[in-house]
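Need Precorrin-6A synthase [deacetylating]'s 3D structure for a figure. Predict it.
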Amino acid sequence: MIAIDLIGIGTGNPDHLTAAAVRAMNDADLILLPRKGDAKSDLIDLRRNLCAAVLTAKPNVVEFDLPARDGRDDYLGAVSDWHDAIATAWRDAIEKHLPKGGRLALLVWGDPSLYDSSLRIADQLRVGGMALILRVIPGITSIQALTAAHAIPLNALADPVLITTGRQLRVHGWPDGVGTLVVMLDSGCAFDAIDPVGVHIWWGAYLGMAQEALVAGSLAEAAPRIATLRADLRARHGWIMDIYLMRKETPDGR
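Structure prediction for Precorrin-6A synthase [deacetylating]:
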């Protein structure tokens, strides 16, 4: 029997790990660390540093090459094929390193519940016939890290919040009846697609990391600054993880 722990690790800062996450990492027989290529070497380094910082037991820590997602226009099909390839990589590692069963730990950015595919991929292992027990250790999300960094509440008083993606924002615009938007997985400044009048933005990149960058202000004023800074950071580091919250002013100016 394989037990799989999906452990939310926040944004890579060891201080973001919960006591439950540290305990689960030390209880593991195997920890798998995905490599995403040279351009994102910082990401594997962050996971290595987390392990070095908190492991007191001696689980087997194994790195594997994460399959790349096809960039074709069929987005959902490309993602589905990518998940299949990752599930195969997990299965291969389990068969090689846990042939008699045991506990596998996977370190998930933020929390496994929010715009992460680890739960879906684990389900594919089960559908494929692997007997497993799945456990989720919750972590600090990038949304929590963003609102904390800017010292703002997630929602306005009695107002709904929508969490969406850059792709959805570009296609559908600002949804009716929603005062606050949180935008994740934006490949390139989708806030340019909306009317900036009366909108305030709080943006953050590399949250909780040494290279953290923050910008806040009216969307009309802040958007060009964010676009310039984002391009510079991406060129400098070879990758970027960012998120932003936008809020419309209420009729009374709040």
